[in-house]
Structure formats: structure tokens, C-alpha cells
Amino acid sequence: MLESELRLNTGRILPTIGFGTWQVDEAVAADIVVEAARCGYRHFDCACDYGNEAAVGAGLRKVIDEGICARDNLRITSKLWNTYHRREHVRRAVERSLRDLRLDYLDLYLIHFPIATKFVPFEDRYPPEWFYQPDAPSARMELDRVPISETWQAMEELVKAGLVRDIGVCNFGTSLLRDILTYAQIRPAVLQVELHPYLTQEKLLRFCSGAEIAVTAFSPLGALSYFSFEMAEKSESVIETEAIRDIARRHGRTPAQVVLRWGVQRGTAIIPKTLRPERLKENLAIFDFRLTDDESSAIGGLNRNRRFNDPGDFCEAAFKTFLPIYE
Q1: How far apart are CA 79 and CA 158, in angstroms?
Q2: Using CB atoms within 10 A of its CB, is residue 92 exposed (0-12), middle (13-18) or buried (19+)?
Q3: Is residue 120 part of a domain?
Q4: Residues identified as active-site
Q5: What are the residues facing 7 on neighbouring strands?
Q6: Hey, is 12 helix, strand or coil?
Q7: In a domain? residue 326
Q8: Which DSSP string corresponds to 292-317?
Q9: According to the model, what pLDDT value does residue 299 have?
Q10: Which of 10, 109, 119, 252 is most buried (most C-beta within 10 Å)?
């Protein structure tokens, strides 16, 4: 296997570096997707909740129509939002994402969170986001009693219908993964979770390796994605640490390249996001150097178990609902 690829348990390939579309504004999403494809990105990570799939889809259509990349060589991921966990809503949700992305099928479809919330009709609000009734005087989240088994079985039906090639989950821990594996007819191909030097999650990675579940790291550079939400302090930037900067100097690389290289070298896919063309190229240019075992250990030693994207924190602060999922 090439280092630039992960082989899934279905035999299909996932590029180890993808382009993440979270926080990419609709106004620029189409252009940046095209630019990313021209730079060599073939793996694009999307989601209903990002609110930009129609714009991303316009970019993907241009990529295909202009011959920048054939559809068969692209790997497009989207995610099932919390409001669509009931069996009767899962297919409608993926069909909406397919329509917006201008695709006939998805390469990978993930349950976004192990959180089921009350259904919001598509015609009322899309994407529905976190609040059930955002204009209500006491707006809050409204949870729904939907077992993960029901949602997973509906996900499997998408594969059988040819709408999705592979399925998986986001933000799940080992207990929920073990539960799915007891009844899944189609095993999860991918787990996508927050992973970076301040949150290394070695036990989770070891479990997934044994269960033949590939892992994609979101927020692979750590705090950078969370400054604008005030969910991280500037002092928590891993690429500013002296350990990372020392390694970068030794290799003649940027601190970001060192952290991304660490993510790939430990066997995960990564989905960094940038809007700067020079950074698009920089983030791909990590396969011509290698960290030593001591350097990898030093980066892993930065672990603080610091999770920036935690519903147990932000749901209460922003949506008046205490909703821990990792404890």
C-alpha cells in the first residue's frame, strides 16, 4: 500500500489527505474545491450540517466536467445529521446531500454524532442545525429516542440501494463501536474523530486497528479551527509549541507539515482545511520526509486529552442542553 492511501475493510481506497469543507463559506466553496482538485486533492469531506454542500457540489461538478479529475477517482464523504436518525428519514437525508453535491452516489456516508434529535422537516429548515425551534422563547435541543441500531440498519440499506459505497461513524468511542459490531451486517469502514497532538487517543486507534476500521482525523492541527468560536485559547496552538517548531527546523518544514506528517505516519487519514492556495499545496507536501521514532514520540507526548469539539461543553453553552457523549 502507498503511504498516501488507506485500504478500507471493503477493499476500497481512501486517500490519507483530504480537503475538509467545515467552515468553508458558501461564497468561496466552489472555487476552493476546484483549486484543491487542481492541486491534487481527491478526498473531499462534506456534511449536511456544514451548510455548503450545494456550493461544494458546484465545485465538484466543475472538477468533473472540466476533466480535472474523473468521478471514479474522487472520494466524497458526507454525513447524516442528528435530526435524520429515524429509519424513514435516513434515505431522504442522503438523497438531499446527493442532490446538493450533484452526485449519483457517495463514497462514504457517516453518522455525524451519536446524538438523535427531533426531526425537522426538510421544507421547514435545511440544514436544521442544533435547535429544534430556534425562534422559540426558550429555544433548546430536543432529543429523540432512536436506537443507533435503527439508524445503522437504515445506513446499510443505502449501500444495498447503491446510493453509498461505504458507511461509517463520527465521534463514536469504543463502547458504541463494539455495540455496532454485534449486529452490523455491513461493518463500519471508517471512524472519523478529533485527533491531534493534544488529543492522541491511542486506545481508540488500537481498538480500530484490531477491528479493521480505518480512522480519519478531523481538526488534525488542533486548536486552529476553534479560535473563532472561542472554544480554544491562542496559547493552545500546537504548532506554536517549541517541540513542534524544533522538529520543523530540523526537517526544513513548517510546523503544520510536521503535525500533519505525524497524523499520516501513525496510520490515520487527515482532513485539514485551508482557503489559501499555497497552504493547499503545503498540506499535500508531506510524503517526502519521515519523522524519527523519537520525534513521533515527542509529538505524542504533547497529549493533554484536550478535546476542542465536545458536545458535553458546547451544547450546554450554546444550545442550553447538557449532552456529554464521550464520558
Answers
A1: 13
A2: exposed
A3: yes
A4: 50
A5: 13
A6: coil
A7: no
A8: -HHHHHHHHTT-----SS-HHHHHHH
A9: 98
A10: 109
